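// run 5 | inverse folding | seed 20
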């Protein structure tokens, strides 16, 4: 059964942490919808290899219309968490126990949403202490899966394991 995945993203995302998972999600038959401040905006990755045209503006979407949330890494999650609309949007998925996939700096949005307490998770080395302060049970592993709902990874090298577990959770 195809799932609809909300992808929150803005400029300076880590290119491969967006492109590779999206490719895996689509190959598994799922729909990916990109969300930023405004529909039609173009956002560019940190490596300048990828430009994404945004499908929906954050004020025009309802988290209830989506089955899962994907948060690519890079500087994008840190910029998004400064906007309460994105924080509230992400919090919905965690509160409702819908699948959430966050790689590298992606968990920063979940830290601000105050949704990591007691959850097994990982992230880029430089944010692991922040995750710990947020109450997460931080592990230094290529992929951490918590309650078959939250899938997190540390860095681009972890993408194959991240994709495998994210697609498995989507397909269950």
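// decoded
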């Amino acid at each position: 059964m195809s799932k609809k995945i909300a992808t929150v993203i803005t400029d300076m995302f880590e290119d491969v942490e967006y492109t590779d998972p999206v490719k895996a999600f689509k190959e598994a038959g799922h729909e990916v919808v990109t969300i930023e401040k405004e529909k039609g905006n173009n956002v560019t990755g940190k490596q300048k290899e990828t430009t994404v045209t945004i499908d929906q503006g954050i004020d025009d979407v309802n988290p209830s219309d989506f089955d899962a949330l994907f948060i690519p890494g890079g500087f994008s999650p840190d910029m998004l968490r400064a906007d309460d609309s994105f924080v509230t949007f992400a919090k919905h998925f965690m509160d409702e126990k819908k699948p959430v996939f966050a790689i590298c700096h992606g968990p920063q949005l979940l830290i601000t949403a105050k949704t990591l307490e007691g959850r097994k998770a990982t992230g880029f080395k430089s944010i692991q202490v922040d995750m710990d302060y947020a109450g997460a049970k931080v592990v230094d592993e290529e992929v951490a899966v918590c309650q078959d709902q939250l899938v997190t990874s540390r860095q681009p090298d972890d993408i194959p394991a991240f994709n495998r577990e994210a697609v498995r959770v989507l397909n269950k």
